[in-house]
Amino acid sequence: MLLLLAGVLAACSPVLDWREVALDEAGLKVLLPCKPDHGERDLPIGPAVLHLRMVGCEAGGSLFAVAHAAVPEGLASAEVVAAWRSAALAAMRAAPDAQEDDGRLTARGRRPDGRPVYAQAAWRVLADRAPAQVVQAVVYSAEPLAGDAADTFFGAVEPR
Q1: Model's pTM, two decimal places?
Q2: How many CA atoms lie within 13 A of 122 on its CB side?
């Protein structure tokens, strides 16, 4: 009986347990489908370096992440977005058929271990801050997400 109850409870557990997460330093709130991890890394952009702060988690076989960085002095926001986009596509060895629809990039590529990966990503510039912030929301998965999970995720990256 206990095993049956455990099985029923596991079946009722949502794979995507959405929660609001505040990114105070960027003045953003986002929705993530699981308990987030936080991280930082540097991304060289020409002569400058973007210091990326990110939050993300894995749920249902997909990695959901939001990263942000201040636009370095002397660079235009559009330059930063273009360079970040190129770096993201290069890192996943994306196929040349990457497409952008409604501001959302979709691409197929390979993970570092050679397994296939599908990415959906969007960038946004928050120009009303000093310095301006560039924000990337991205989902990496083996296949495109089913249902409305991607729309929920991308639609919930908002200023606080």
Answers
A1: 0.87
A2: 15
